[in-house]
Each structure stands twice: as C-alpha cells, then as structure tokens.
Amino acid sequence: MQDGLRLLEDALQAEVVGRHDELVGQAERLAATEATYASSSLAVGSLQAALRRVRAEILEPYQQASLRLLAASFRQRREAAEC
C-alpha cells in the first residue's frame, strides 16, 4: 500500500511540476479576477448609497406635493358640496 501511495504522490507531483506555468497563470488570473470583483463591489456599494440619497431627496418633496394635492382635492369636494 505504501508503494501505491508513493506512486500516486509521485504522479501528482509530476503533474503539478508539468503544469506549473499553467497553474501559476491560473492563480494570477484568479487574483486579477478577485481584484476586479472587489472594485466592482465597491462601485456597487457607492451606487447603492447614491441611490438611497437620491430617493431620500425625492421622496420628501413628493410626499409634500401629494399631501397638498390631497388637501386641495378635499377642499374642492367640500366647496362643491356646499354649493
């Protein structure tokens, strides 16, 4: 069994050595991909924060305008009922 394990280990080592350049290239591409992901994740976070700020800036005036419109509608109905 020891001989079988040694043969397997030798074969694995030979495979790694034989593909060393390919494995290093894949590791470098993975590192570049991770950096791109981190950068993209930061950009998405910034966009989400900006969107929250814009929503907050838009929501308050919209709600105020909606309330004024609703109040005007009630006044108009009340005035029409009084006539």
Helix share of residues?
Answer: over 70%
Counted by DSSP, the helix tally is 2
What is the mean pLDDT?
94
The main pleated sheet reads as:
none
Q: Give the assembly state of these chains.
A: single chain
Strand content: under 5%
Order of secondary-structure elements: HH
Number of strands: 0
Tell me the count of domains.
1
Structural class: mainly alpha
The gross shape turns out to be rod-shaped
Poorly predicted segments: none
**How much is the radius of gyration in Å?**
33 Å
End-to-end Cα distance, whole Å, is: 105 Å
Would you kindly provide a written description of the structure presented here, covering whatever features stand out?
The protein has 83 residues and is mostly helical. The protein has 2 helices and no strands. It has one domain. Helices cover 96% and strands 0% of the residues. The chain is rod-shaped.
Topology:
Elements (H helix, E strand, L loop, with lengths): L1 H17 L1 H63 L1
Comma- or semicolon-separated keywords:
single chain; 83 residues; mainly alpha; 2 helices; 96% helix
